[in-house]
Specification:
The chain has eight helices and three strands, in the order ααααββαβααα. The protein is mostly helical and 179 residues long. The chain is elongated and about 60 Å long.
Length: 179
């Protein structure tokens, strides 16, 4: 039996898949971290460095208490600027703390020089295969498999289940019960 629906655009399929897996939010968070210098300007970025984003909270290191106080007064403006650029509320709050700030002049910062290889279980690999084979195009299917495997490995290193947005809430519940 022929399906009368027109084929979906690859971009639309990937966008939908990334949304279902919660990857879209992670991509936006990485974009925010990468655009810190551009958003706050050269002077502020020389004295501050974004560290991570967790549950809508952006954590930023600053090199002195004077800069911490100064940035605290601009917090709402910075939040508004980032969310406007992402066209949705990704950042809800910013937490500044005094600490070591890497002053790299154009060079990429090394986050972690160790490479950790994470083995996926059979059920995880089966999920990757099942999800990717829906695409239909062999080249895109292979690309998606690589992306999904890396996503699963990343989630494993963070101690979370990588089965989409719903799994995050169950991870939160299980973590709360262990404390």
């Amino acid at each position: 039996m022929m399906d009368n629906n027109p084929p979906s655009r690859v971009g639309d399929v990937l966008k939908s898949l990334f949304y279902q897996l919660g990857i879209d939010t992670k991509i936006k968070q990485v974009n925010i971290l990468k655009s810190w210098s551009q958003a706050v300007g050269k002077t502020i970025s020389k004295h501050s460095q974004p560290v991570t984003i967790r549950k809508g909270n952006l954590f930023v290191k600053v090199d002195s208490s004077a800069w911490l106080t100064q940035l605290y007064h601009f917090k709402e403006k910075i939040i508004s600027e980032f969310n406007k650029n992402q066209e949705e509320e990704i950042i809800k709050d910013i937490h500044f703390s005094v600490g070591s700030v890497s002053h790299s002049s154009g060079r990429k910062r090394k986050v972690n020089s160790r490479k950790v290889t994470v083995k996926l279980e059979k059920k995880e690999l089966d999920w990757v295969e099942e999800t990717a084979k829906r695409i239909g195009d062999k080249k895109l299917e292979e690309l998606l498999k690589r992306i999904l495997k890396k996503y699963k490995q990343f989630k494993k290193t963070k101690g979370e289940k990588a089965n989409g947005k719903n799994s995050n809430s169950s991870c939160k519940r299980s973590r709360k019960n262990t404390h």
